[in-house]
Amino acid sequence: MFGWTGNILRIDLTKKTYKKETFSEEFAKKWVGGRGFAVKILFDELKPGIDPLGPDNKFIVALGPISGIPAPNTGKAVVAAKSPLTGFYGDGNLGTRVSEHLRKAGYDALLVEGKADRPTLLYIENDKVEFIPADEIWGKGTYATNDWIYGKYSKRVGVLNIGQGGENLVRYAVVRSMEGRAGGRTGMGAVMGSKLLKAIVVKGTNDIPQAANDAMRALGSGDLRKVGRIDKQTGWSTQGTTGVLSWCNEVAALPVRNFRRTHHPDAWKIDGERLNVARIATYGCPNCTMRCGITIHDSEGRESELDYENIGLLGSNLEIFDLCQVASLNYLCDDYGLDTMSAGCVLSFYADAIEHGAVSGDFMFGDAERAKLLLGLAARREGKVGHMLADGSLRMAMQFGKSSINYAMQVKGLEVAAYNCKFIPGQALAFGVAPMGAHHKEAWIITYELKNTTRESYGPEKAAKVIELQRIRGGMFEFIVACRFPWVELGWDLDNYPKYFNTITGLNWSSDDMWETADRIYAMIKLHYLREFPNATRQGDYPPAIWFDPSNADTEGPIAGKVLEIDKYDRLLQHYYDQRGYDHRGIPTRATLERLDLVKEAVEAAKYGNLL
């Protein structure tokens, strides 16, 4: 079996034991890696109803066949567990040297279970695992933690760590790595914190098994140079992802004032052009030649790495249009180990709820200094307000009542990414049916929708496009495991990825084989959800209610007077179900499960509700 090490490293923090476990070639071909491995292992090993922040949850780091191989943007890893934020399967993808080192240590996945008796750092070097007391760095932010680790082990090792947000079980705490990499916005950092696991350090020195080492080395290194040249020709890295901000403002898709507005005259002050002018450094993931981590000085003089999502949700959505202040909020989120997207949505929802009388408080839109203080309260779970903010917008809305759930910008408990879909039906559907909640990576259909189709359409072609993009973005890139940016931003041909996969594994997969695996993984995430929430209805696949509210329509601009129409959205949702092979509740049909070889898993899920 080439392309896989064939090994999973299982670590029990309670017993301070570890063992190497093998998996079959059949398992490898069915689930491939990354998200595929994680979703299958967690489904098999977690009992429904367990506390995501209890010792029965399991934290997984999973890699794919091309993880860590020198080729365009392969320095990525998937972190996964039962989500403390949403209550079912959750994961995240981040750039990290762990992608290379864990594979060179001889493992395709790391599974951590139990709970340590004190703050702990796991050190993994090939066959050796050490449980090292981490009291010295417990309570420190991710930057100081990273520096301490580098001082002890060198900058060449792979590192995953958490900040105070993870330690204090903030439900949207992330896992951090390297200068500015973060992943796991479904609360993966809180799962590490619940296990008293401060950091994971990995050093591997073996070769990654490949079917054709020389051929892959030549192919990968040549393609890295090609992607780098395309980036220089297009100039994409001059603004990175932030180049989309001015476009979103122009087409009425920018989150402003808790998504109540879609554009703002001051948005130019925080756009990609301004960011590029203020740039002091640029960072990227391993094996990246189109680095997107643009760093500027924040209002306190610290280096803060920004992208579109955190500027949109910590900036315009809070009506803060001072780029250095936005950078300060971003720095705090990164240091505390908080997801910038959820943090921005939580703060904007809090300001909105105060303004509409759902809760009392002293935070208003535009107040950057108070926002900084609130982030600290949340990260430390300090006082009543800190505990409330740390639990995310869905739980806040359930606490506030007074119809505030209508403008809590979340789906299935996960806060919406930075695209205002007040009148963008296809992207609203993508958020609604994203398997883990309103995640930005699952199906970014907005450019297709606004550039290539009629914006007003709720037709089946948009459902088809969402499925196509899910198969690519949340499917193939999440299980092989690699970054999607060369394809998304530079037009790097998708056919390159099956080519890498086949060269490494010696298999002969087509794109259709990739899409079938993606469909299997999406159906499995749905089974996770239904096993935890057997009474779920199709309304769980709806976006926030405020996008359907005529009283929330823009009064001027390109979509003045327009909002989503709920009856049309429901028909669009049914188009999606029909094309996916799901029933009217959004549950995969028996025929679909048989086609995807998931009947055994479906029978297990059906024990907890009438699913079939």
| N- and C-termini, Cα separation | 36 Å
Instruction: Give the C-alpha Rg.
Output: 22 Å
**CATH superfamily annotation of the domain at 7-203:** Aldehyde ferredoxin oxidoreductase, N-terminal domain
Give the biggest beta sheet. Answer: 6 strands, mixed
- How many helices? The count is 24
Helicity range: 40-55%
Shape: globular
CATH class of the domain at 7-203: Alpha Beta
Mean pLDDT: 96
Q: Give the total of beta strands.
A: 17
Q: Supply the helix-strand structural class.
A: alpha+beta
Query: In which order are the strands of the major sheet placed?
Result: 2-1-6-3-4-5
CATH structural architecture of the domain at 7-203: 4-Layer Sandwich
Strand content: 5-15%
Flag low-confidence runs.
none
CATH topology-level name of the domain at 7-203: Aldehyde Ferredoxin Oxidoreductase,  A, domain 1
Q: Oligomeric state of the chains?
A: single chain
Protein model, in words:
- This protein is of the alpha+beta class and 612 residues long.
- It has a domain at 7-203: Aldehyde ferredoxin oxidoreductase, N-terminal domain (Aldehyde Ferredoxin Oxidoreductase,  A, domain 1, 4-Layer Sandwich).
- It is 42% helix and 13% strand.
- It is built from 24 helices and 17 strands.
- It has a six-stranded mixed sheet. A four-stranded mixed sheet has the order 8-7-12-9, sandwiched between helices. It has a three-stranded antiparallel sheet with strand order 13-14-15.
- Helix 16 (425-433) crosses helix 18 (460-480).
Concise structural overview:
This protein is an alpha+beta fold.
